Amino acid sequence: MAAKRSGVTPYRGLASLASVSEIAASRADAARERVASLTLLLMAAHDSGRPLTQDEIVDRLEVDDPASGRRVAAYQGSDIAIRQKFERDKAQIRDNGLRLSSLQGEDQLYRYSIDPAETFAPAVEFTDDERRVVALALRFCGFGREGALALFDGGAPTPGGLQYSAFYTPVVRAIERQAPVSFDYVSRAKVRRREVEPLVIRVIEGVSYLVARERDESGWRVKGYRFSRMHSMPAVGEGHIAASADERALARVWQPGFSKGEKPVDVVVSTTSEFAQIVTRLHPGAEVVTTKKGRVEIGLVFDDHYQALRFVLEGGERLRLIAPSTLVKALREWLKSVNTMDAPDGADLRFPPTTKRSSLGQTLAMLSAIHNSPEGLRISDLAERFDMSPALVRDLMGRLATFEIADSGAGFVYPARVIKECEDWDHEETDDSTYRVTYEPGDAEAPTLTWAHLFELNVALREATGLVRDPALYSAMAKIEEIAGEFVEVTDPHLDNLAELVAHAITDNQALKITYLSPHGTEFTQRTVEPRALQSLNGRILFRAYCQLREGWRTFRLDRVGDVLAVSPALGGRPEDSEREWLSSTSDDGVEVTVVADVQRRYLFESLPHAEVLPLEEGRVAVRFRVLDPSFLDRLMVMAGPGARVVSSTHSAAGRELAERWRAQI
């Protein structure tokens, strides 16, 4: 296998383009290369201590010409056209979380550079065992095509369980530096500038919140900000935050939808012995008493009235609320008001088109994946990991692999540090070539993980501690924590060792005999299942398995498993699972529904997979999503109570019948 590092490579892949659409696509690819090359150039400029003016950038930066295959100036045309193109490229760089510095010199000219430390975390060296558990943890959390899983050898990408956001990079960096941060934020249908002191990122039911200290008219307060509502790239400020120990402690227990009350709420419920088993697993501190009638009474303590009410609503018909009487009264009123909120007509709502992730972020992630693969990655590997065509991978990486900066005095050298190894250079356009990282003597090792990737690793490894007991997991966590500190807090599902048992069954090709509580049932049924995949979604842990009872593939929630009664070898020979992306199958199937939710209940809907969100007046939002099972929507509307209304013609009465049935049993 031969390697090629520098020099002009004929651009065979685009030389024979015929259609207008293909030519347009090639120009878009050239623009992608220009922005990626500009980013590398500005990072090299920072490392050399010589920021560059716009004229210097225009003189130095070259790209491949799609028509001729020759190297040409990246910026061409009139002065106005060059300036407009340069401004668009700078905006795209900043939109990916990279901090582009512009300093005005004594000659009144602005000089530009990018500090790699503002984008990339210090390099983390993982052992082979650590890389294995990192890939497992990332797959479990769902950091797939748009996240850190694609940087490691974890197989094909998977749909995400935790929302991806380019905003993680500057926010994590600000927390690590203990510096203030500012951003535009959508609140009450208005975009307002927020200047806050970031304390911690809380991941609650698969949704990420920045919990920060902000000053208002009453003084300093600890508040939560949903990443999906940020309207601009956060900017890291100067100075040092001054939060107290009490404020930092409060930030680590902050929850959406409530404020910690002065007095705890004592709750007593009655249920079956089967459901009591589920409740006590999720609430280890609960007190349990078995009554003469065979029912089980459970006593629990909640920090807030709404959290207590939410617990009862989640239990539904399987729970009977006994005390306190104030909560019983509140529950009656809540159920009476399900799906009755005043809301605009659904036909009048206009949702904006869905935006796609910037190509620059995907390009830099692809370079990072090569840096994180000691043996290199083939074109087919990169295409699968990043959901791209092999032709696009070949074209883009072929350009970057030959990218050099011609500057004899500044000492700029090959910032991409990638070589191409091809088995058949005569047929390079079809060869499944390998790209790998290489260093020359004296080169400094380039950092490979962005601060956002480091955040994702932190979350994934913490959640995976309930999935697998492996020394490599804890050593990998220690390496992450040494760099990042404790900037993230992840909710703990309290599921004992069930996740670990399912994970072992997947690895060892085993079948599990379990007791399982269906979504509407009050008693356990016995199932024999053959698990094949395990992932988290919106704070729930789910696994995909072949169910011998139903004779087909089914998705199971781990928190509805009672006991594992037996373990045996899987029978094998099962039909292929038709649901390739079983975790997010609602994105293409089911009935489309639109719900309007108020400021207190919007979090129940915003976190739904592939949901589209439209801000409305007074903090309300319209959320459009697909529903496969109408009973799911019924329960969701009951959870929202008086704070939401279905405004689409389909399922307009969702939740009302169920709420009345529950209300009659109180």
Summarize the structure in words.
The protein is an alpha+beta fold and 666 residues long. Among the domains are: 2-121 and 357-437, no CATH class; 465-571, no CATH class; 586-665, Alpha-Beta Plaits (2-Layer Sandwich), CATH 3.30.70. Helix 2 (20-48) runs parallel beside helix 14, helix 6 crosses helix 15 and helix 15 packs antiparallel against helix 16. The longest helix has 29 residues, at 20-48. The radius of gyration is 27 Å and the shape is globular.
Low-confidence stretches: 4-25, 405-414
Gross morphology: globular
Derived from helix and strand composition plus strand pairing, the structural class reads: alpha+beta
Q: What's the total number of strands?
A: 28
> What's the mean pLDDT score?
80
Largest sheet: 6 strands, mixed
Give short descriptive properties of this protein.
666 residues; alpha+beta; Alpha-Beta Plaits; 6-stranded mixed sheet; 20 helices; globular
Summarize the structure.
The chain is an alpha+beta fold. The protein is built from 20 helices and 28 strands.
Write the layout of secondary structure elements.
Layout lengths: L1 E3 L7 H4 L4 H29 L3 E2 H7 L1 E3 L6 E3 L5 H17 L4 E5 L5 E5 L1 H4 L8 H14 L26 H10 L3 E7 L2 E15 L2 E10 L2 E8 L8 E2 L8 H7 L13 E7 L1 H10 L4 E4 L5 E7 L2 H11 L4 E4 L1 H12 L22 H13 L5 E2 H8 L3 H11 L17 E5 L11 E4 L13 H14 L6 H14 L3 E3 L7 H11 L1 E7 L8 E13 L2 E8 L4 E6 L3 E9 L21 E7 L5 H4 L5 E4 L5 E7 L2 H11 L3 E3 L9 H10 L1
Parallel strand pairs: 8-19
Antiparallel strand pairs: 1-17, 2-6, 3-4, 5-6, 7-8, 7-11, 8-9, 9-10, 12-14, 12-15, 13-14, 16-18, 17-18, 20-21, 20-24, 21-22, 22-23, 25-27, 25-28, 26-27
